[in-house]
Amino acid sequence: MIVFEHVGKRYGGRSEALADINFRVGRGEMLFLTGHSGAGKSSLLRLIMRLEKPSRGRVLVAGHDLDRFHLSQIPYYRRQIGVVFQDHQLLFDRSVFANVALPLEIQGVEPRESARRVRAALDKVGLLYRETALPIELSSGERQRIGIARAVVNKPSLLLADEPTGNLDPQLSADIMRLFEDFNRIGTTVMVASHDLALITRLRHRVLRLREGRLVGDEEAA
Amino acid sequence: MTRRTTSSDSQRGERRGARASQVGLESRTRAWLRHHRAMWLDSARRLAKRPLSSLLTMLAIAIALVLPSGLWLALDSARLLDAELDESATVTVYLDTRLDESAAMDVAARLRDQAPVAEARLVTAAEGLAEFQQGMGLEDALASLKDNPLPAAVVVTPADTDPDAVRVLASNLEAMNGVDEARVDLAWLERLRRLAELGQRLTLALAGLFGLGVLLVVGNTIRLAVESRRQEIEVVTLIGATHAFVRRPFLYSGAWYGLGGGVLAIVLLTLGGHWLSAPVTALAESYGAHFTLPRLGVGGSALLCFCSTLLGWLGAWLAVGRHLADIKPR
After folding, report:
1. Residue pLDDT, tens place only, A38-55
2. Per its UniProt record, what SUPFAM superfamilies does this chain match (chain A) (predicted)?
3. Does the CB of B13 have a partner CB in chain A at under 8 Å?
4. Would B62 disulfide with which of A128, B57, B212, B265, CB 3.0-4.6 Å?
């Protein structure tokens, strides 16, 4: 699903954010990406999302060499990826329902079908009863779950999460992780960047460890 | 599972892509239309939510539109006047003073038979004197004259009103028997034409300049709108929105501003026309001309609205295009 071949990334003249990264992720796998802040987790995710190009090497996702994409193809590529952000990135001027419906609106899904899928996604994260609420009325845990609902509403084959539990207490974090495991169980490839080591070790999935832009560990699921 | 090659992945991806494009065209067109309708309404709603600032923007556009379109209207009416003048471009043929009235009639008849003459009206010496007295208010001075000093004249309307053709006709007529002089006064007519041409160019230059002004007004307004919706743009870009999708609501906003400005400009022009019409008509009457201020009319109004809407759209397009490049998701 994801292949990194000798990938390096350098911003401007500064030292390398990523250096010679090599790994493969199979379809349907679930794994964590860990390391201190500044170790390159976010840079790596940005490369997969094709927000940036690698300075060296190449990145393949679902068989596509991301370097070869024409600028106009990138939006269509991103639609196949669900992304969960640390700060959830919800739009505060519209309801929970409209927020989750956004990816479907972008893809031009017919409204009735869209409503059905939005409700299914909200149901999955246990917040169907909040569909008419505004994001401002929700707790941070709820907002994060809405962010997840939005990420999975178009049934992406790859789900990326950047510190999805960063602002949450351990109980809520565990709930969120369980959600990711649920999606993984139905075949979605899930990659979660997190520095919450206690949580990660408890969950027993494959872990990629980054330190100062280098891949220093690739531990298979226990 | 973990270390599988990616070739099968890629094949599956391609197959899915092919199917998607087959399902596509009709439903994609429907989705496209749906989004257009949604953005059309959404942008109108956003404008309506802040009526004062929207109105001010539209007013700025309207003011920029009023001057060139007002000038254009004035010029258009000058063209009408010009056409009227063309018809009045006549050659006055003064006959030999020694000819008596029947001989004058003969000459007039001969003139009428000339090919490039549309019409020839004889003004006898006596009629000429009467006209002169009336027109100039010189009754007393002329009454003291023993003989009528005026020659009989034939007012010839040329078939072709082109200045050069008229000049040729005049010199031909002058060569005829019994004709003393053929006079044509075209200089003032040509001067008027040049003036009209100057006015036309001035209007075009002003229209260009003020059109640019409209672009800037709309562009600046849209720039602020883009800035205030920056987060939304970043998010939708992250989840796969195309540039066209991001641009669409702003384009509609720009078009709305343009349309509103166009409508306001029509209102301003109509009001201004009413305000000016009485003095203009009075002024024209004092010159003995019949002239009323022209109206924009349905066609003109539609054209003005269309142009202003297009300008608004274009201004938004330029502004969004420039700022989309700046906005990159974090």
Report:
1. 888 888 998 999 888 888
2. P-loop containing nucleoside triphosphate hydrolases (SSF52540)
3. yes
4. B265
